[in-house]
Every structure is written in structure tokens, then in C-alpha cells.
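# step 3/5: fold
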Amino acid sequence: MKLGESRQPERKMRQNWRDRIFEFWIDLTRLLACGGILCIFVFLGKEALVFLKAPEASQSLFQLAWFPSENRFGIMAMVVGSVLVVGLSLLQAWPIARASAIYLGFFSSPRTSVWLLGSLQLMAAIPSVVVGLFGLSFLLPILAVYFPPAFGLLVASFVLSFVLLPSLIINVHAMLVIDTDPLLEVGKSLGISTPSLIRKVILPQRRRFLRRALILGAGRAFGETLAVLLVAGNNIQLPKGLFEPFRTLNATIALEMSYAQGLHRSALFFLGLCLLLLVCVLRFLAGRENA
């Protein structure tokens, strides 16, 4: 028996141990992540339970007025504001993200693609409060000349779309280019142009993955706080136009938690619980699209 053949069982044993350690580490990480989310749910639910048991919750929860000093906790104006700003931001960012991802994946040179993707990753790492300050100090003064005071859905959705755009482009690009080389080669052999192949084959085939990227982008948008807070105006009212001040659920928690007490504090925890449940539902829907 050769020396190399005698060492093969030993190498296989070492490889098996490495695989087992790696699998154990993955399972442990998954368990810690699930446990952390469960702990957050329990903490928020425990703090929000005081508000849910109070009669004021059932009496005023689905109203528009939010006056904690009068025990009026209507959240509908903030819910509508949050949904509108997220919807408008995705409406602005999604076409740009999809077109940019198609260019990076199928039309740009490899060197250009690597450079642009690196730049997008750098942009995605910019703190959102910096983008909010840009909107507050640059965009608002320009719009205020024509639409005073300019706080409202338009500038807030534009700032939020700028925050979402880098991560959206990266996600859509990753879901478009995976395993597309065989399709491109077959298309070239059949004389099909790249734009036709993308429009008629790749995009319909990846429709589920694109919906998943859009849903994940919506979850990211609902979690954004500071960028929107700086340019929304923060009046708790239904926005009747693009330049009407409004407030989101996140902004209410950020602005009022420092001084809230008693039932008011519990109501803010309830808002946090609602946001967490919303993001979990969106993540579940994204997982179904990927299945």
C-alpha cells in the first residue's frame, strides 16, 4: 500500500470533522439570530401590554388624533404617512435600480462593473442621517422658493429613495446575473440580441426574484427613521398633498421616547411592535418569493 493511500482515511476524517464544526457553527448562529428576534418580540410585547390593556387603546387606536396628554392615541395618520412615503420612494427608486442593474450585469465592461458595484457598496454604507442632512440643507431651500415650506412627501420620498437606491441596485444585480451565462451563450448562438434576450427571457424568468428584492427594499424603507424625520415636517396629520408636513411611526418613537412616561411610553413600544411585525411579514413574503 502506498503512503498516500494510507493517509486518505485520515484526511477524510479531518474533512468530516471540519464539516461538522462548520455545520454546528451555522446552526448555532441561526439559533442565536432566532433567539435574539424572539427576545425583542417578548420585550416589546411586554412593554406594549400595558397600552393594549388600557381602554384608551381600543377607543382611539384607529383615529387620526395623537394627543398622549389627553390619552388619545390615534395612529392612522402616522400609518398612512409611513405607507405613502415608502410607496413613493419605491416608485422613484425601483425603475432606476432595475435599469442600473441591467446595465451593470449585461452591458458594462467587467472592469466598469466592478468599479461601479464598489462605489454602490460605499454609498450603501453612508449613514442615512447624512442623506437627510443633504435633503434638509440643499433640497428643501430650493423647493421652498416655489412650494413653501417644502416639508412633506415629495422631498421625504426623494431622500428615502436615495437611501434605498444603492442596496436595491446591488440586490437586483445579484438576482439578475446569477446563472445567466448559459442563456447569453444560447442567445448569441441563435442570433438573438442581448436586449431581446433580457426583455423576453431573463426578466420574465427572474420575476419572482425581482419581487423579492422589491419586498426587501420595502422592509428597509419602513425601518428608516432619521433621513425621513429631518425633512417630513413631523406634523401628525393626513398628508393631503406632496408638500404637506406629516410624521411616520418611526419618527414618533424617536421624537417622543426620551420624555414619554406611563401609558404614553407603552404606546410607543406598541408602535415599535407594529413595525417589527410589519418587517417580519415582508421578510416572510420575500422568502416565499424565493421558494
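# step 4/5: annotate
The radius of gyration is 25 Å.
# step 5/5: archive (pending)
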